[in-house]
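Late entry, evening session. Most of the bench is empty. Finally got around to the prediction I had been postponing all week. Sequence below, unchanged from the version circulated by S.P.
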Amino acid sequence: MRWLMWFAIGFTMACAAGVYLISGWWLLVIAAFCGVICVALLLLRTPLSKKLVHILLGCVIGFLWLWCFDKCYLLSARQLDGQIHVLQIQVTDYSQPTASGISAEGKIQLSGKTYSVQFYINEDVTLSPGDRVEGGFKLRYTGGGSEDPTYHRGKGIFLLCYPKGSNEIFYQALSSPDSFPVIWRQKILSFLDTLFPRDTAPFAKALLLGETEDLPFETRWSLKASGVYHVVAVSGLHVSILFALVSILCLRHRVLTAVIGLPVLFLFAAVAGFSPSIVRACIMQSLVILALLVDKEYDPPTALAAAVLLMLGVNPLTITSVSFQLSVGCMLGILLFSQRIHDYLIHRTKLGPAKGKSLRARLTRWTVASVSVSLGAMSVTMPLCAIYFGSVSLVGIVTNVLILWFISFIFYGIMAACLLGAIWLPLGTMIGWLLSWPIQVILWVTDMISRLPVAAVYTSSIYIVAWLIFCYILVTVFLKIKKKQPVLLVSCILAGLLGAVACSWIEPRLDDYRITALDVGQGQCLLLQKDGKHYLVDCGGDSDDTAADRAIGLLLSQGIFRLDGLIVTHYDADHAGGASNMLSRIPADTIYLPVLTGENALRDAMVRQYGSKIHWVEEDLVLEEAEITIYPAENTEDTNESSLCILFQPADCDILITGDRSFEGEFALMEHTDLPDLEILVAGHHGSRTSTSWELLNATRPEIVIISVGKDNGYGHPTGETLERLKLFGCGVYRTDLEGTIIFRG
């Protein structure tokens, strides 16, 4: 059956090429070309040619299937892009709050086809699975725009629905059998809140069902930096733990294990939400059960190939899912390298005896198995983490060895708490209370390890990117040469890491000054640096977590573990939403906030958390060591007009930041102080037409304008009017939506 593995490789390559590189009729052209080569190779009749034939046959079928899927299904969705329809949406999941209302997933019938959609409503309502929503919506195809197509298309969501105008939305509460798993999931999550203390319930929910929304940002960051975030992303680990329990309860009886195990796996996948990672794991585990049932040998590569083919056959765009790529990559790395690493550690190192029942032998076997599996998985997933998350954990192996053995016991304990708590609530609550202690230990261990100076490295540093490429070149050469020297390989990798980290930390400090505009989407986050002083201006973007992640990654990549100050221009989420999350990992000596009358939840939260560090800017404030002047606003009622303005004047460079002030706020600033001619101006309000006025440009004559803005944002920023003004003044324009993170240094 190994031919299936080679066929799956070709099929996957075709899906990847069709999604990322080619489209339309080119799919048929490439399929025909592969078919011709396939026929030619059939004449050679060599072992290598047979493998190539299977790969090319997979490519042919993959290109044809992707073309059919596009023409028969996706084409209709693309044609609906921009159209307005009165839709009847069947809700398939619970609604989630957004900045202006709610969002939820559902299904619609259009053009004779059923589409999974994500829809938005500008009302504060609660929707449950099975409910029906009717109203006018504007459709948007998920192949482009500011929404992340990787997330939506990987889940099979090809249309987004936005309410159009003032059309009335009608709601109808119903129930549907296919919504029962989602309802059960919600009930289990609510029950866990009852069983566990408040500080450990989020981890229990994440470990059992992959529900990470309630995990504090600091916990999520610790898990990622320490390399064990996979324990709260339901995957093969959880499926294997569950199957082990089923097998034990069935006394390892093959038929009984199959009869009970297969439905349990399907139910668990359904309740956990059918994420690509758990679907892959359940398919492979089901094949294990079937192999036992018919007394056949289980072949992991063939099982992985079957899982990939089945998933891509249902939705070829699943290949865009980060969950799918990480899950398949993890298994691929384990299959390719783990056994080799295991054999080397057992036979070529002095770890002590690995055979027998002594405690030392058992610990040796466990340690070697954990290290070899972790290294095998990391060999493939490391570049994916670098690309998608901008970071790579260096301590994951150590953390896995320390806590992974503990996870299965906690998983079983959580299940026991749920089952026994359903029978008698006090008993379940007591188990939850007892489990909270080992959970606290795990959280403490991951937090401590994640705070090590080089627990993780970040791709915001070009030196780290170069080191990662260098590592894979070294490993490739190592695998090719006959006389392998692992000690030399590890030494070169560590030496390269030391050099990359040293360059990342030292190089920014060689500049007289530096301003960095991070790409945080539709938001703003700026880092001002001079003479070893580091001030962050704002921290907000498309999401609070993303803005905080990128700010922390940038700071840690430069060896900055503490800020001299955080300056918040104003309290809109796209400027300050990620500030508290960022401060949970990178503290600031002083937090400079604008005065705002009236209520504001974000300001009040910061006061509660960091009250002793807050400096209210009520008059001009000069930070002499950093050559920063902060100007307060006269208007303290409107959030945009209350924006602090920052003038950064290192050496012979003048840099002005105006937050989200409009023309009126800019006029007030010019009346308040004499602004110098500027080398750099950060455009106000992300390039809005009501900011960066003609008068401000005329008074300051900036040479360069930075626009911190999100790609294809729904606000139309930067507007054509603003860009035209900048063009008339001859300003060089740099935009984070086009250039990414922007750095100016002197």
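Two things to note before I forget:
The longest strand covers residues 132-141.
The first helix runs from residue 2 to 20.
Will write this up properly tomorrow.
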